[in-house]
Amino acid sequence: MPSSDKTVAARMRALGREIERHLRLYHSADAPEISDAEYDELYRELEALEAAHPDLAAPDSPTQRVGQPPAEGFTPLEHRVPMLSLDNVMDPDGLRAFDERVRRTLDRDEPVAYLAEPKLDGAGVELVYRDGFFEVGATRGDGRTGEDVSANLKQVMSVPLALEGAPPGRLSVRGEIVLPLAGFARLNRERLERGNEPLVNPRNAAAGALRQLHETDLPRLRALEFRAYQVAEGLPAKVRSQKVLVECLAKWGFETSPGIERCADVEAAIAYHDALGERRESLPIEIDGTVVKVDDLALQRDLGELSRSPRWAIAMKFPPQQRNTVVEGIFTSVGRTGALTPVAQLRPVFVGGVTVSNASLHNQDEIERKDVRVGDTVVIQRAGDVIPQVVAVVKAKRKKGARRWRLPKKCPVCGSQAVRVEGEAVTRCPNLDCPAQLKNNLRHLASRSALDVDGLGEKLIDQLVERGQVTRLSQIFELDAATLEGLDRMGRKSAENLVAALERARATTLPRFLIALGIREVGGTVAQLLARHFGDLDPLLAADAGALEAIDGVGPRIAQTVVDFFADPKNRDEIARLRKLGVRWEKQAPKETTAGGPLDGQTFVLTGTLPDMSRSDAKARIEALGGKVTTSVSKKTSHVVAGESPGSKLRKAEELEVSVLDADAFAALLASPEG
Fold first, then answer.
1. What is the rounded distance in angstroms from the CA atom of residue 468 to the CA atom of residue 453?
2. How many CA atoms lie within 13 Å of 121's alpha carbon, on the beta-carbon side?
């Protein structure tokens, strides 16, 4: 396999593992770490790579799933018709692009009518009826096999056990289990009164209630509601539109989504979405957008499905929600690179589906720009981010005497004098042995994208550092089972398992090792570029900034950061110790990307939004034709592709007199045999 293929295959495997992990956290643990938008970004990158390199796609890729495999303890139940997920767009132009694809596929110029309905934020399920009587119910699962949760579904009062006037035979009804906001608030009050942890958000509460194996929470189950929106099997032939289908569901005894409308064309669907957004706050159920479906069922059949989603339906998401709350304090967090980050402690507020109590303020410049002070009322926005944003301060509500806040002059963990390098916004602790940095670096080393040390979790790392048993990164590979057994909640078996995991982690790849070192600016992409260019660590250690800058995708700042890291004697010593302790990787001959494509030798930078393809799709198309995509504009850049609302990269291109392609010129370039 060529080196370039190995790099792509490795990235695809890494993406697959990361996506699977987030699927398990979301569906099995009810504890998501990232937002839907961040998950979608990972998923689209994998889809684009698989589209460009179909021969490298793994048969067990997450793109072949829709949700998550059934959990142990539940009886698997196969969906006779797969339960697909929906693709989504974030703005009207995305919906217009969907409409164009629909009409292009159908080869028609006249408008297509759509059914628009609120996108419910809950858990998808299938209910199967036989001759009008409830037979079985299942979760979505992986889209092909779900979990039999019939017993729990029977406790949901809006799940009809018998239907009125339904067709005979087998009837499969799809819909969403949701927890209304009033019920969510009531359940949390009751839980707090009993001394229990509150539920995080209505969506997770609904999914978690359905998937209880023991000690069924009847109050929570009975607070849930089922809203039907689709018939997968058994629909009478006389039903020819999505609108009539929903009307049939209501006649048979199902609750349906409020405010469903038939829209004559895509512009009417956009208007519906805007109006729905305005009354979103008044709805009794959490929603996060609009689902738009081709209304004509015959046209739906003509359009068909992809492996994961139907071609005839799409979701249009709402912009971020905002709430007001109060800054009750500001503290300083120390990151793995020594960055001192101010964090606002907030009066807890529910926004964007979660209860928010902290928000990063990023750096001193950001605090001064927004003028955030303790006691201020602030606007919080959660655009699906794990760490929410402080959008603005409501200065009209500021109390007299509120004082400006500044980062401490010394690291709050180790007491070292904090420094801020000229030209950087970040203030750092320069002490590489700072316990806070060490903890974060150990977590980074153990992460899936680095050495993937199973069992080396946050609490264990805290113990090792706080007890002085690990004072430098390399010492993690000196641990033995006897030492580990002495830690809290670590038995013999757990200690032996961790030692075995550390032994496995010693055999790695050069990109993973570079990531594990925690070099600033060196993530997965840059690590792959460095490894592919140098083939081994020693040539990289000997390289100067100019040699690194010669690599497409490595700019001056990254090059200097890498050179500075390897020039530090402490870092050199740690690398030598890690190698002595058995950390190793397979060497490979330095090899440039195989030439031959029509865009070979050309470097592209993408900015703005393209009307007919996502950024990941554009990147995959360029790479499939032999070109390269980088993130920064330089004199070496061949073309900057500028879509709608381009950023500073366009100005940089104009300053450097780099070729700029608009969407049409870019499409023409991709279509040209010569590139």
1. 20
2. 22
Planar angle of CA 582, 584, 588, nearest 5 degrees: 160
Contact 470, 464 (CB under 8 A): yes
Q: Does position 611 have pLDDT exceeding 80, yes or no? A: no
Q: Could you tell me the two tokens for 629?
A: 């995509």
Average pLDDT over residues 572-590: 88
CA distance linking residue 26 with residue 411, whole number of Å: 36
**Residue pLDDT, tens place only, 116-157:** 999 998 889 999 999 999 999 999 887 888 888 888 888 888
Average pLDDT (553-567) is: 85
Please, are residues 167 and 130 in contact by the beta-carbon 8 Å criterion?
Answer: no
Which of the four pLDDT bands, split at 50, 70 and 90, describes residue 385?
very low
**Active site amino acids:** 119
Mean residue pLDDT of the chain comes to 84
| C-alpha span between 379 and 324 (Å, rounded) | 5
Q: Work out the percent of the chain whose per-residue pLDDT is above 90.
A: 33
Q: What CATH code would you report for 603-671?
A: 3.40.50.10190
- Cα–Cα distance for residue pair 502/508, rounded to 1 Å: 11
In the numeric block, the tokens 């194996």 are attached to 213
In sequence order, what E strands does 79-113 have?
Answer: 88-89
Q: Are 627 and 600 in contact (CB under 8 A)?
A: yes
Nearest-CA neighbor of 382 among 332, 434, 322, 300? 322
Query: Could you write out the DSSP letters of every residue in 338-403?
Result: -BEEEEEEEEEEEETTEEEEEEE--SHHHHHHHT--TT-EEEEEESS-SS-EEEEE-GGGPPTTPP
Could you tell me which of 532, 537, 535 has the C-alpha nearest to residue 514?
Answer: 537
The correct answer on CATH 2.60.40.1120 for the domain covering 88-317 is no
Question: Length of the chain, please?
Answer: 675
> 3-state secondary structure string, 43-60?
HHHHHHHHHHCHHHCCCC
321-397 belongs to CATH 2.40.50.140: yes
**Residue-wise pLDDT tens digits, 502-550:** 999 999 999 999 999 988 778 777 888 898 889 999 999 999 988 888 7
> Where along the chain do its domains lie?
3-64, 88-317, 321-397, 603-671
The mean per-residue pLDDT over the stretch 403-410 comes to: 92
- Which has more pLDDT, 123 or 208? 123
Question: Comparing 3-64 with 88-317, is the CATH topology the same?
Answer: no
Residue holding tokens 């060490």?
Answer: 438
How does strand 225-233 pair with strand 170-178? Answer: antiparallel
Q: Which DSSP string do the residues of 215-276 spell out, in sequence order?
A: S--HHHHHH-EEEEEEEEE---TT--BHHHHHHHHHHHT--B-TT-EEESSHHHHHHHHHHH
> What top-level class would CATH report for the domain 3-64?
mainly alpha
* pLDDT given at position 154: 85
